[in-house]
Amino acid sequence: MEDPGKFRKNVRQVFKLMYLMFFGFMLIAGFLVYLMVDPSLSVFNKNDPNNYESIQKHDEVDFDKIENGVHVRTGLVEGDGLMLVVNNCTSCHSAKLVTQNRMSKEQWSATIRWMQETQNLWDLGKNEEPIVTYLATYYAPEKEGRRQNLQNIEWYDLKE
Questions:
Q1: Separation of first and last alpha carbons in the chain
Q2: Backbone torsions φ then ψ of 102, nearest 5 degrees
Q3: What is the pTM of this model?
Q4: pLDDT of residue 147
Q5: What's the CATH number of domain 66-138, 1.10.760, 1.10.150, 1.10.3470, 1.10.1660?
């Protein structure tokens, strides 16, 4: 080094810059902590009508609403035992799993037994009969399923 005084001066300037940056970061961090403790200075003012919380209050949904004979939240058909099915079935799986299946009363009971044995479904007790009745009434096998087998077809042999 040609001039040790110049080197020391440069080191002091670097240290001053580091101190300034450190205290600047500390001021910003302190301000952010203050905002977390007292958010009144925050942009998200609670009295603001465009605030998320006030918007959320206006958009509350009635979870047990039924429109056109269908439970809006789950898509299940309205009927006796609907809320038992909603409370007992949709706590573990989607209502789509119920609506995509079509079974008889015996098959629904067997499915419940299977879930109790393998999937840790609780004992439904006196609720089981209304649940199975609801499921067998509104989600019974449909009369028409697959298309009829093809008949009177003239088959031909493929040649190699």
A1: 92
A2: -130, 115
A3: 0.53
A4: 73
A5: 1.10.760
